Amino acid sequence: MDYYLYKxxxxxxxxxxxxxxxxxLYTTADHFRADTLFSALxxxxxxxxxxxxxxxxxxxxxxxxxxxxxxxPWRELAREDVYYLPKPCAVSEKKQEVPANxxxxxxxxxxxxxSDMGRFEQSICGKALYxxxxxxxxxxxxxxxxxxxxxxxxxxxQVGSFRFYPDCGLYVLVGMQTEAQAEQMSRLLSALGMSGIxxxxxxxxxxxxxxxxxxxxxxxxxxxxxxHDALEKREAKHWLLLTTSLPADDELEAALExxxxxxxxxxxxxxxxxxxxSPARKRTQMFMAAGAMLHQPFRGALYNVAENGSHPVLRYxxxxxxxxxx
Length: 326
Description:
With 326 residues, the chain is α+β, with helices and mostly antiparallel strands. It is built from seven helices and 16 strands. Strands 1, 2, 3, 4, 5, 8 and 9 form a seven-stranded antiparallel beta sheet that branches. A three-stranded antiparallel beta sheet has the order 13-10-16. A two-stranded antiparallel ribbon has the order 6-7. The two termini are 24 Å apart. The mean pLDDT is 90.
């Protein structure tokens, strides 16, 4: 499998709702997860190529010919791009005296630069203390909108949004089997960027451009080489999960044995005009969040999360993992 890195630059504000929040409209995350991306890609494939385009994408995902990571941040520093990974759910192998201010920093830390993974490994092995930087990628804000109904007063409501700094954005990793798939994915992401990803796209949120497409089978610096080597590993001490996902039923017990992870709620509404006459909720599931550390990999699945409609509604839960030595 070949892995590609797609660097996304957002044109304005984004709204990535938090499924674990009852007030998801008023709050926002700073990134989107792989199930959101897969759903958006399917909608885009439908508009470009019809139902056959969606079936092709679903088949590729079900057979493992297509793998998606969650989105992750990048920033430009000294005219070079710095790519970040989710902080691993790893516990130090040795007890260390950690200053209180550093403990607070580590508790708040969500992302680690790829170039810092070696230093983070040293801290897990008890050989050094890892001191994170003060990395921020944008600002959260609220925008007041109004819902207007016929013969009624306007009803104001708040929309939580995130706006990236000019030198920051998100990237995704995509695993594919063929060059034809890579060409298809480039078209899909370019089209998706024009319509937007996340919530409130009809109000102009979530549009982006694909600034770069990097074939990781041809690494050109320390970051891309580290990512390529970790993605290609067949044996490792642990596996770092890059995709918020869920093992299939027959994998669950083995995958969770000795794993360190956090759970995240995945829910939402069906985004289809043809599924049913009235809005329908997707089935709620608890997924393992990206950053989980596993002793062994799993295959995952695509789950049908809505019933009594005109077509299946699939939630993506196939993992992409990095092999790590800590």
